[in-house]
Design brief:
The chain is an alpha/beta fold. The protein has 8 helices and 8 strands, in the order βαβαβαβααββαβαβα. It has helices spanning about 15-25, 45-55, 80-85, 95-105, 105-120, 160-170, 190-195, 210-220, and strands spanning about 5-10, 35-40, 60-65, 90-95, 125-130, 140-145, 175-180, 200-205. Strands 1-2-3-4-5-6-7-8 form an 8-stranded parallel β-barrel, surrounded by 4 helices. The relative contact order is 0.16. Bound molecules: 2-phosphoglycolic acid (PGA).
């Protein structure tokens, strides 16, 4: 049975309290199912508290970070290195288009970030914006997120996402798991999850509301 990843990317949203309120609703209502990997990616401030609550309550979910430093620990003011994130997260989103556009995460920088993540055994969820985005060596989990679809309410078609997944698998190997992201919500998620070549979704805006997110995740459990 293939894995299905349902990844919540909260971006720069939620106070610690809002994060914990969300978790209190979502955590107890998630079914544990081996092949369904539910991941929540809070901002750095909420990461520690979210991780603690997930552990204490044994919620069937993983915790991820949305970025990390390209450097290891040391004299890098303002940075958060993989060495410390690994205690709080199992997964790291790298190469998101918002990072590329606003924070100078170039193709060269994301390679370094991926190396840092891997050196600390953080699973990399590597975002590509189109088929041509270079993918660093050793990446096994990719999210295809076309820029026109992010936060616009205008998702790509499942067929087009599948085409990109096919191309990625041809390039990196059939074991590579490819997710789709961009305006996924409870109304359209099933059309993406039903695609044989897709292994889940990366959800931004629609992941912020706990009921909406539960409704998205529950469709993965029913497949
Ligand atoms: P969206 O964001 O679901 O709000 O379109 C997805 C993402 O940027 O990961």
């Amino acid at each position: 049975m293939k894995n299905i990843w349902i990844v919540a990317n909260w971006k720069a949203n939620k106070t610690i309290k809002e994060a914990l309120d969300w978790l209190e609703i979502v955590g107890p209502n998630l079914k544990g199912q081996d092949n369904v990997k539910v991941v929540v990616c809070p901002n750095f401030l909420a990461l520690s508290e979210v991780k603690q609550q997930v552990l204490v309550n044994s919620y069937p979910m993983l915790v991820g970070c949305q970025s990390l430093s390209r450097f290891s620990k040391g004299a890098y003011t303002g940075e958060v290195p993989a060495e410390y994130l690994k205690e709080l997260a199992e997964l790291a989103i790298i190469g998101h288009s918002e990072r590329r556009q606003n924070f100078g995460d170039s193709d060269e920088v994301v390679v370094l970030q991926a190396e840092q993540a891997k050196s600390q055994s953080l699973k990399v969820l590597f975002c590509i914006q189109d088929f041509a985005t270079p993918i660093p060596d050793g990446i096994k989990l990719v999210a295809f997120e076309p820029i026109f679809a992010i936060g616009t309410g205008n998702p790509d078609t499942p067929q087009s996402a599948s085409e990109v997944a096919k191309a990625v698998k041809q390039k990196l190997g059939t074991q590579t798991e490819v997710l789709y992201g961009g305006s996924v919500n409870s109304q359209n998620v099933l059309s993406f999850l039903k695609q044989e070549l897709l292994s889940g979704v990366l959800v931004g805006k629609a992941s912020l509301d706990p009921q909406e997110f539960l409704s998205i995740a529950s469709q993965a459990f029913r497949l």
